[in-house]
Amino acid sequence: MKPERRPRLGILSRRRGLYSTQRLVEATRAEGAQPVVLDTLECTLVVGASESKLLYRGAQVQALTAVIPRIGASITSYGIAVVNHLEGMGVRVVNAGAALAKSRDKVRCLQLLAQGGIDVPRTAMVPRQRRGLRRVVEELGGLPCIIKLLKGTQGVGVMIANTHAELETFVRTFAQLGQEVCVQEFIAESVGRDIRAVVVGDRVVGAMRRTAQAGEFRSNLHRGGRGERIELPEAYERAAVESARLIGLEVCGVDMLEGKTGPKVMELNSSPGFEGIEQATGEDVAAAVVRHALSRGG
Question: Does pTM surpass 0.85?
């Protein structure tokens, strides 16, 4: 009898040395599977009527049991193209291309969540002409308000406007740089802190409260914030799992503000980092992701 071939788990990542990628490699080996790390930008997509292929550095990639995409914001378009190509080849991919696209479009993501009954901060996408900003502020509940780049990540491109003049300046500056922005309701009771819950499949595998450093309102760990493990209240767990389901993400980080009436979902991260959540909670998030991916593989 031939020995049973080990499952081959593909990991799309720009760099093998990244913490999250390393953890996925370790977890894959611990599950008895073979990790195959592929630099997303070195994948060539060959489309044909009879057969489509994926080439990696000139060689054909075959026999992948499943793929975990780690698609950074800077390569969203090409990363989604690679994921779509793999799906078209019949490869199981954790987080479909369509779901990745929805999560990366901040306004579209919030639209879908709101339509699905999820409480989100009131948000307005602002045209570059900047007309009617005072009315926008009224719709959002007044000043201060938050300005966000539609394609920002890790707290980059997030600012607070305390006056109409500041808001005008921020929006005008971004428009001159060709950047689209949205303006968002300021949730005063949650200033300087939020909750990150990581969803895998239909459950939360880890949750932490992130608190901003002194003098900073953004709580992102990349901005100097600190994370601490929390027992997630049922309403927050429900909101996180349902948000992931509505967008179609099997693995994601769900960022929520602690509003007076309960959780307000800010955004979904389709490639959440593992370092902060694993250190804060002690949970093996990478293992949960790998087990989920392999359970779907065929």
Answer: yes
CATH number of the domain enclosing 166: 3.30.1490.20
DSSP for 182-233 reads EEEE--GGGTTEEEEEEEETTEEEEEEEEEPPTT-----GGGT-EEEE----
Q: Which long-range contacts link 238-243 to residues 24+ away (Cβ below 8 Å)?
A: 239/118, 239/119, 239/263, 239/265, 240/197, 240/199, 240/204, 240/207, 240/265, 241/199, 241/202, 241/203, 241/204, 242/116, 242/117, 242/118, 243/113, 243/116, 243/118, 243/199, 243/268
Does residue 213 form part of some domain?
yes
> What number is the average pLDDT over the span 276-294?
97
pLDDT at 189: 92
